[in-house]
Amino acid sequence: MTTPSIQWYPGHIAKAEKALMEQLKRVDVVLEVRDARIPQSTEHPQVQQWLGTKGRVLVLNRIDMISTQARQQWTEWFRSQGDEPYFTDAQHGKGIETVLHAAQRAGEQMNQRRRDRGMLPRPVRAVVIGFPNVGKSALINRLLNRRVVDSARRAGITKQLRWVRISDQIELLDAPGVLPSRLTDQDAALKLAICDDIGEAAYDNQRIAAALIELLKERAIESVLQARYNLDAQPFTGESYLHELATHRHKGDVERTARQVLNDFRTGVLGAIALEYPMERSVVSS
Question: How many helical (H) and strand (E) elements, i.e. helices and strands, does the chain have?
């Protein structure tokens, strides 16, 4: 039986995307934030089109959630593509200064053009865009050194566009998460669900937890499951492991077990685990 595809495009995202297109006309620099655990799956296919000639700063957030090896591989790969990735842990304030300086440098060309025309420089206007729950609002709060926008570890918190001034040099637009209107790559959609970068209404927890277990087995790091739950995943499929674990830990409650496995991954209890590496597309049973 074919499982339903993962799709999520709530009304507030569609409305906010339309408003964002209007505001982009005023923007000099785009801060594109992706989830460091899944940099490919959190790449919006229309960002390059939106950018035009604007400056861009690529931010890979949640660096604390991946290994040093994964960070190094992504750094080398992005540089080979002509990009310089800026890694952050916005929740704990790591890497924030480098992002701020990169945004200011990216906006300097705009002010140079103004000077060339005999105009006074003005603050650089930047916008933070990315999928839901990749850490955009946490990044803005860190850039400002105070909490001015709501931030939480779930998708759909920011619902309206809002300009905030960081300093005399830069103004920032906080925008709700943007998503393609249709998720055509269902492997990527599964990873968005695993990482909680899409609304929970879009997926079934048990299916997504089983997919996570399959991914860990595919990467030959399923030992993290045994270390956490004292149950070897090797002899099982993702789904059967979930049921076996439910029997051992939660009196057969598979839904509760699925939620625990997902939460343990999302909060780092299972360890620092990248679900993507450069130039690969995982095949996950769905």
Answer: 10, 6
